[in-house]
Amino acid sequence: MMDFDAHLAAYAAHSSKSRGRRYPEPAPGSRSEFQRDRDRIIHSTAFRRLEYKTQVFLNHEGDLFRTRLTHSIEVAQIGRTLARSLRLNEDLVEATALAHDLGHTPFGHVGQDVLNECMKDYGGFEHNLQSLRVVDHLEEHYGAFDGLNLSFETREGILKHCSLNNARQLGELGQRFIDKAQPSLEAQLTNLADEIAYNNHDIDDGLRSGLLTMAQMEEVELFARHRHAVEAQYPGLPGRRALYETIRLMITAMTADLVETSAARILDAAPKSIDDVRAGPPLIRFSDEMRAQTTALKRFLHANLYRHFQVNRMRVKASRVVRELFDAFMQDPVLLPTDYQVQGDVMKQARKIADYIAGMTDRYAIREHKRIFSLDQF
Ligand code: MG
């Protein structure tokens, strides 16, 4: 058998030592366990839906804005670079990154918040837990099991946060939230690769949309510093190129800081295995200085982009679509496709409706809303 783990550090997630799958399967011959996970994720239906789900801007607002799909690919790419630098398992990071947003509702975070409110008497809705639900239960691809039957390590990485209540129902996967233990370094790393990706691509999308201006961005120290470095190296470089150069330097600075800080912490804690990692403190971190700067950037994006009045208009409209669909289906479950109808169990019916709505792309949700409510269409 091929050795997929030869180049990895002792503290990495080794394919040969995976904690396995919920339904045991023979080891894949020419791929590692995590390559197999990645391939299953890419072939899934939920993965293709990411193309039409909002990151910040609605999918149809412009062809060049990030979608959940391009976001996930950027996370995977940054994550692989980080993993290789720290001799962690790139395949596991890639699989986790490509799956991390599979449970996202249409319309970005507002979709999740509204669905959570709608579901408050029926067990709530968490997009992170929904990503796990997609890969564990909802995908219909295989004869022998529901879901994709991914390895423990990929599922551990997908489940970034989880309420204690839900953790108690998840068995061994939920245990770490009860014990306050860490996941693999690959999971910790993917989480921060996610942050590096969105902090940078949201600047690009924000400027492209005209909701943010270059002058405004100068308020953010992390941006201004790299913008000035670009100006010094290429005086008078025109707009878009100067922006891309700036973002390129920012990503490089963040990844370099993360690798340096994490490598020092790993050296210090000296974990000898993934079990040591799980029992120890978080090791994948930014330096305090970089953490302060990324926090300032996030605050800026929150105030000036995510809460921009034009984004608010989208949010309010989107929340209406989600809420009205949920209420209509709860009131008249016969409106649902037959597979989603449940007789005589309101908890199960609500969950099915949440699954149905969460699985919708932005445009499907808008169309479905028209089909249900428009009097022009019968
Ligand atoms: Mg993400």
Structure description:
- By secondary structure, the protein is mainly alpha-helical.
- It has two domains: 15-310, Hypothetical protein af1432 (Orthogonal Bundle); 320-373, no CATH class.
- Helix content is 61%, strand content 0%.
- It is built from 18 helices and no strands.
- Helix 1 (33-42) runs parallel beside helix 4 (90-99) and helix 16 crosses helix 18.
- The radius of gyration is 22 Å and the shape is globular.
- The mean pLDDT is 95.
- Bound molecules: magnesium ion.
What is the structure about, briefly put?
This protein is an all-alpha fold and 378 residues long.
CATH domain class of the largest domain: Mainly Alpha
Q: Number of helical runs?
A: 18
Examine the secondary-structure arrangement and name the CATH architecture of the largest domain: Orthogonal Bundle
Order of helices and strands: HHHHHHHHHHHHHHHHHH
Radius of gyration: 22 Å
Biggest beta sheet attributes: none
Mean pLDDT: 95
Bound molecules: magnesium ion
